[in-house]
Amino acid sequence: MRTVALVACWWIAVAAWATLQNPPRPPRPLPANLPEVNPYASDADLEIGRRLYQGRCGHCHGQTGEGGRGAVLNAGRFRHGGTDRELFATIRNGIPNTEMPAAFNLPDIEIWRIVGHVQRLGRQGSPEQSTGDPAAGAAVYQKNACVTCHTIDGAGGLTGPDLSDIGAKRALRHLRESVVDPGADIPLDYRLVTITDRRGKSISGIHLNEDEYSIHLRDVDGTLRSFMKSDLTAVALPRQSLMPRYASLSAADLENLVAYLASRRQGAKDRGVEGSTDLREASKDRRQGSQERGERSDQVVWMFDRLENIGGHPTTVLGNPRVIDSPIGKAVEFDGIDDALFVDDHPLAGAEQFTWEAIFRPDGGEREQRWFHLSERDPVSGQDTDNRMLFEIRVAGDQWFLDSYNQSGTAGKALMNRTALHPLREWYHVASVYDGREFSNYVNGTREGSAEIAFTPHRQGHASIGVRINKMFYFKGAVRLARFTRRALPPSEFLRRTMP
Ligand code: HEC
Ligand code: HEC
Questions:
Q1: Radius of gyration of the chain (CA)
Q2: What is the DSSP letter of 239?
Q3: pLDDT given at position 127
Q4: pTM for this model (two decimals)
Q5: Is the dihedral of CA 307, 310, 316, 318 positive or negative?
Q6: Is the CB of 117 under 6 A from ligand 1?
Q7: According to the model, what pLDDT value does residue 13 have?
Q8: Is 222 near ligand 2, meaning CB less than 6 Å away?
Q9: Are strands 411-416 and 399-408 parallel, antiparallel or unpaired?
Q10: Quick check: 268 and 169 in contact, CB under 8 A?
């Protein structure tokens, strides 16, 4: 009974927290008449821009743009675009899911003045270069077991931030400091909390959220844990990092390690990393997906490599889905009884054409299972409408077949081929494709059904994985990733399953 209450409480708390932390960001399209070239670039404007920069940006990007907690701005290279217009967009809208804040409250003229100053910083050139050897640094990284807490290119632990792109985000100075003195600058998402229960037992973890009655953390094993405050004798938020200090590394090891971290950037060549291009491509898509979310990019990837956040969206977790290491990488496993994830986004809202792909493994269980559901919501009442897209399966003995369902208004169609049977407990790629006229579904690139349907785009909504959105027909099996593309892809462009 108590567990049920606790789980319910956790669920409500997370939902409330998610809304608090991520109030729906109003889409801020750039004004149609936004000039290509900075209209406020006189010397007087630049001087105001310099002062604004020093007050608002310098503590992250360094007073001369040398970088720090924020990206290097004096190299003349901007990953998010270096034209006046692109810089305007970055500075006004921020970069979603990073620490780069938006400046919604600044008038356009002030933003232009900052753009002018940032352009001037960019022309200075000469960012600091590392003197270390990245290959030797990779060995230092291995030897010190950094991988138990950090992920690079999809491999590693979840306690600390993903470091795949760290070299592009942070300056050398910050990387060096992060290793020898991790407590100096702790990203907000990684604050440590230590609780003590009535028996005097202490547990530490990353602080996820808390309310008047309960507190939630992620411990070092990556497990989400919830406590009723009435059961605790102390809750402490030490300004301390979960990451150990590596103060005793030799100067050479440290420089090599920093060189290795600095070389981790999106699109970096010659990473020497094992693994498939597909998944590396996919995680690049994932980053792009979340960065461009404000403008709705053409393609978004959701990796199921963690529970608390999928595709850049905080989740609501039901039951106890688990992150597993499968032969094709991390995935989330559902027990077929009460495990599910809810994500507050409908990644295909507004799409006139689409390709919805997923890589999953059905493990048997009940005959009818709804394992991936995208639902439209009525913007006024907030209730789910009937408009939905679904991946379902039917289990038949030791085999399964696919059922894909699409509905919008009066148009609805289920594609189900009872004779296309596949063995259970293997990894599959499935796709649902709509080209504006015809709706088709595929298993491992082979078309299993198709029908004409007049499908109008969905409005915004939400998604559930592991169950139907009304919490019926739970799924037994695992999901590795999903990719949503706003056009009809031919099977030759589908993701591959990437077997070991
Ligand atoms: C709290 C720290 C923080 C503050 C304050 C901040 N930034 Fe950033 N900024 C970042 C981080 C971190 C990134 C890198 C994000 C990423 O791509 O992962 C970034 C990225 C950028 C980029 C994109 C760089 C590129 O390579 O394309 C620009 C431009 C930028 N910031 C300008 C500014 C300006 C101008 C201000 C002040 C108005 C500002 N930032 C304030 C942390 C900050
Ligand atoms: C016990 C888990 C743990 C281990 C082991 C660990 N880290 Fe960390 N690391 C963290 C956490 C948690 C953070 C975020 C809080 C902070 O910045 O202190 C972090 C932050 C960082 C950052 C800053 C990231 C950013 O976005 O600014 C870097 C760089 C880093 N770690 C590198 C390393 C390296 C290199 C090693 C091995 C020598 C290592 N870590 C070992 C947990 C760990």
A1: 24
A2: S
A3: 64
A4: 0.50
A5: negative
A6: no
A7: 43
A8: no
A9: antiparallel
A10: no
